[in-house]
Amino acid sequence: MSVGLDIGSKTIKMVELAKDGGKWKLRSSGVVGYSGNPIEHMQDEKELTALSGLIRKLHKESNVSSKDISIALPEPQVFTRTIKFPLLTDQEVASAVKWEAEQYIPIPINEAIIQHQVLERRENTSPPEVLALLVAAPRILVEKYVKVAQMAGLTVSAVETELVSLVRALAPVDQTVLLVDFGARSTDIAIAKNGLLSFSRSIPTAGEAFTRAVAQSLGVDPKQAEEYKKTYGLSGNQLEGKISGALGPVFRLVAEEIKKAIQFYQTEEKGDSPQTVVLSGGTAGLPEAISTLSKSLNLEVVVGNPFAKILLDPETAKKIAPYAPLYSIALGLALGGE
Ligand SMILES: Nc1ncnc2c1ncn2[C@@H]1O[C@H](COP(=O)(O)OP(=O)(O)OP(=O)(O)O)[C@@H](O)[C@H]1O
Ligand SMILES: [Mg+2]
Fold first, then answer.
1. pLDDT for the residue 44
2. 228 Cβ partners below 8 Å, 6+ apart?
3. Which of 226, 279, 283, 323 has the most ligand 1 atoms within 8 A of CB, as the residue to mutate?
4. In a 10 Å sphere around its CB, with 0-12 CB exposed, 13-18 middle and 19+ buried, how is residue 267 labelled?
5. pTM of the full predicted structure?
6. Would you state the pLDDT for residue 71?
7. Per-domain residue ranges for the chain?
8. Which stretches of the chain score pLDDT less than 50?
9. Strand order in the sheet with 129-138
10. 3-state DSSP assignment of residue 250
């Protein structure tokens, strides 16, 4: 049994998988809305208690059996860099990372948890090089997550970053793709080459910014704005184009960041151009987002289905279909388990 818990700023998702023969099978899943502060802004014990209560309830009501869970740290709170080394052995890379991490990450080493992964050995470039991915997270943040889980009666067996989970859930092993987790607070962008995270970026513009734009532009309350956003989205011929007019500039900002990410990856990291853009997260459901983004990037854009390779009965498949992209990170976490 393997459980993934994704604590988003607006929704909390949990997925439990079980091995069935050689394949993963969906055992249970659930989602619950959340309106409190993000964990890193929590000041007192009361807030932690409220969040842990919600997680405990989600665990129970989704009928998740295992109490061992994997969690993902929010992308805006972690630091991810691709580093180039001369052609060192894996062991040498490990010690180089240890000694040199300080110059790459903006938090003191003794306050950080650091991990790395060798991505690629380029023996034929001149000079030859090894590419490694470095991930660092504030230790205090990880401790808060572990504490919240403990308060909910759960044990954390693995911690990774959201985009590492997302790549495991959605990236094909034989292509370069661009993944976008379009959430509430942040839009997280990953480029994955052959199933490995090679580039990541997080921007603080996502679902909440869209709702705010509609509320401000039309002078309606946030609840009504949220409704308008979900119903009309970027579709230009609705409500005299007022909603798409309000959302357009914010959406273009996100599209520009995606373009910049691709350019950076191609020029600085000599990576291939991604062939497809795969969207996940709640905001992936924004009406006309796919067509608008596809036109703007001149690339194929699809909504990811993290359950594509998971065994699930037809009834559950039907029930879960509209929410599938919401579960990408929780599912990717669970896939990383034993
Ligand atoms: N059909 C829809 N159209 C547009 N937006 C939608 C739709 N459904 C949900 N959303 C938006 O998706 C967001 C929630 O998505 P998600 O659950 O992925 O976010 P989160 O994981 O809580 O946030 P984050 O990861 O940024 O902290 C909300 O902003 C919500 O308004
Ligand atoms: Mg999220």
1. 87
2. 214, 218, 220, 239, 243
3. 283
4. exposed
5. 0.95
6. 98
7. 77-137
8. none
9. 79-86, 129-138, 112-122
10. helix
SS3 of 75-109: HHHCEEEEEEEECCCHHHHHHHHHHHHHHHCCCCH
What's residue 271's pLDDT?
86
| Fold entry, domain 77-137 | Dna Ligase; domain 1 (3.30.1490)
pLDDT for residue 125? 86
* Burial of 46 from C-beta contacts in 10 A (0-12 / 13-18 / 19+): exposed
Backbone angles phi, psi at 105, to 5 degrees: -115, 145
**Ligand 1 test: best mutation among 7, 11, 329, most atoms within 8 Å of CB?**
11
Which residue's CA is minimally distant from atom 15 of ligand 1? 282
Ligand (nearest to CA of 76): 1
Distance between CA 325 and CA 338 in Å, rounded?
A: 23
Q: How far is the CA of 122 from the centre of ligand 2 (A)?
A: 34
Q: What is the CA radius of gyration of the chain?
A: 20
CA of residue 326 to ligand 1 center, whole Å: 8
Which residues does 308 contact at the CB level (< 8 Å), separation at least 6?
A: none
Yes or no: say if 101 and 136 are a contact pair by the CB < 8 Å rule: yes
